[in-house]
Amino acid sequence: MGETQTLDLENLDNHLERVTSIIGDYIKHISDAPVVTQTPMEDIRDSLFEDMPMEGTSPDKILDQVEKSFKSVCTKIGHPRFLAWITTSPSPAGTIGELLSVGFNQAPLLYKGSPPATILEKVVLSWFAKLFDYPDTWGGTLVSGGTVANLMGMTVGRHAHAPEVADRGMQALKKPLIVYVSDQGHMSIYRSAMLLGIGHNNVRSVPTDNECRMIPEELRRMVEADRMAGMQPYCVVAQAGAVSTGSIDPLNTIADICEEMNLWMHVDASYGGAAMISDNLRHLLDGINRADSIAVDPHKWFFIPLECGITLFKNKKQQKDTFIAKAVYLGQETDWDLKNTNFQLSRQGRALKLWFAFKTYGVKRLAEIVDRNHGHAKLFHKLTTESPNWEPVCGVELSMACARYIPDNCCAWSEAELDNLQVAILSELEKSGLGFMTPARICGKGVIRLCVANHRTTDDDITLLFNFMTETGAKLAAQHA
Ligand SMILES: Cc1ncc(COP(=O)(O)O)c(C=O)c1O
Questions:
Q1: Which residues does this entry mark as bearing N6-(pyridoxal phosphate)lysine (predicted)?
Q2: CATH code of residue 478
Q3: How far away, in angstroms, is 188 Cα from ligand 1 center?
Q4: Count helices and strands in the chain by DSSP H and E runs
């Protein structure tokens, strides 16, 4: 009989050493330009597309290809001037935790699938439950990110409100369920409504004020109107850090309405939840502890590498009632098992990277960066306020600032042309390799949006971007016929 072929590798240590050195080199040079590669998409495609390999190749050769065709064209998400979306610059300690997690490949679906990963998930969740001032009845789960964290909150809310759906489906309901979110609500609320069988059309878009915060009187009016019309309002999603502006809805007033009208209150604090670690910003989220569920993303403004989201529940019984499931093949179950806390069964252990990063830096150091990023947004807002060529749109609550470049002879420009100008400025910025920012649409206007969730950004970076965009705006405006 021939020797059994396993998948073990000769020279494993050498390969791992090379991998850590590739990653280390990538992180150490993360601030090099360009932020977004200038290599054309066709070239990247051609260098990576190939047929499924039937025979093996040495990992060393594959690592050569990784260096040449992958690493060299990566988007430098940790670059100090990567200020797009709400995608954090990951902390190197978080990366170490992630590498360990992948290496140990634990399966914390049952306690026996990983005693340490199971306990560690409870540990990090308990930190967040305390941070958000939840009572001892709290429950929670680690998920992939804000989208799933919102889905989890809305799912448990639906089960608490209409438990009959679990067995009999939505057809068990005589009145359609209705969800409320401000007109700044993240698209994941609509997607969750679609997945939960509620439907996009049953998500009400509640109007906002000049600072893009939900108007509570409008919420109350809409809930009453829906009840009169025979609908079944069940959930209000309050934004604590809306995706385009960072606006925070009036949480206490919304909590009053939810209590009075028997509605599930979910807070989407995917981004803004990090304000809770800052002594200067925490007060903005007053009332968040009154929510039935909260979504918060460590992979946004807590500097944890993708993917890492959290849903917290005020009442763990409601969470367990929603997700409880039995399967004989899993063997003996215990109260510690994570499988009844979440829809997913097999899951990555996400706690280790969060635990590693928080222990390495300590929350005080993370809070300093959160405050610094808030200062960056304030600086951008100040620069755009003081310049005759910029019009700030909305104030700064967290670490986002939005503004519109206004050319000297703006009367000669249509609204659509002004909108296009903002996009053109951002496109020139991206092509320059200097930075990467994205547009937003606020109060019907196309704007340039700065979002700083970045531990490497400095005031000089903000000034450099502002000057570049001001000069570019002037150049592009000069070409306007
Ligand atoms: C307010 C808000 N909620 C939810 C999400 C979705 O998060 P994720 O991309 O982690 O799924 C985002 C993403 O930017 C967000 O800004």
A1: 300
A2: 3.90.1150.170
A3: 7
A4: 15, 11
Q: Please, is 378 exposed, middle or buried when counting C-beta atoms within 10 Å of its C-beta (0-12, 13-18, 19+)?
A: middle
Q: What is the pLDDT of residue 25?
A: 98
Which residue among 188, 213, 268 has the greatest number of ligand 1 atoms within 8 angstroms of its CB, and so is best to mutate? 188
Which residue puts its alpha carbon closest to atom 16 of ligand 1?
243
Candidates 464, 456, 469, 457; CA nearest to 402 is 469
Which residues have C-beta within 8 Å of that of residue 139, sequence separation ≥ 6? 312, 313, 315, 316, 317, 318, 319, 320, 341
pLDDT digits (tens, 9 = 90+) for 110-135: 999 999 999 999 999 999 999 999 99
Question: Which of 142, 184, 186, 214 has the most ligand 1 atoms within 8 A of CB, as the residue to mutate?
Answer: 186
Task: Tell me, in angstroms, the distance from the centre of ligand 1 to residue 186's CA.
Answer: 7
Q: What is the pLDDT of residue 375?
A: 98
334 and 383 within one domain: no
Residue 130 lies in a domain: yes
Distance 250 CA to ligand 1 centre (A): 19
User: Ligand 1: which of 148, 189, 270, 452 to mutate, most ligand atoms within 8 Å of CB?
Assistant: 270
pTM: 0.97
Residue to probe by mutation, ligand 1, list 243, 245, 310, most atoms within 8 Å of CB: 243
Domain boundary among 348, 378, 398: 348
235 within some domain: yes
Distances (CA, A) of 365 to 88, 90, 104: 16, 14, 28
Q: In whole numbers, what is the pLDDT of the chain averaged over residues?
A: 97
| Residue 222: domain span | 107-348
pLDDT tens across 161-210, in order? Answer: 999 999 999 999 999 999 999 999 999 999 999 999 999 999 999 999 99
Nearest to 161 by CA among 177, 148, 141, 147: 177
Dist. CA 81 → ligand 1 center (Å): 20
Same domain, yes or no, for 389 and 271? Answer: no
* Residue 286 confidence (pLDDT) above 80: yes
Nearest ligand 1 atom to the CA of 145 is 10
Q: Ligand 1 centroid to 308 CA: how many Å?
A: 11
Compute the residue count for the chain: 481
Reported as a single tens digit per residue, the pLDDT across 53-65 is 999 999 999 999 9
Over 70: is that where the pLDDT of 48 sits?
Answer: yes
Pocket of ligand 1 (CB under 6 A): 85-86, 145-147, 150, 186, 188, 241-243, 268, 270-271, 297, 309
| CA–CA distance, 391 with 389 (Å, rounded to integer) | 7
Of 318, 348, 378, the last residue of a domain is 348
At 217, which amino acid appears? E
pLDDT-derived band at 1 (thresholds 50, 70, 90) equals low
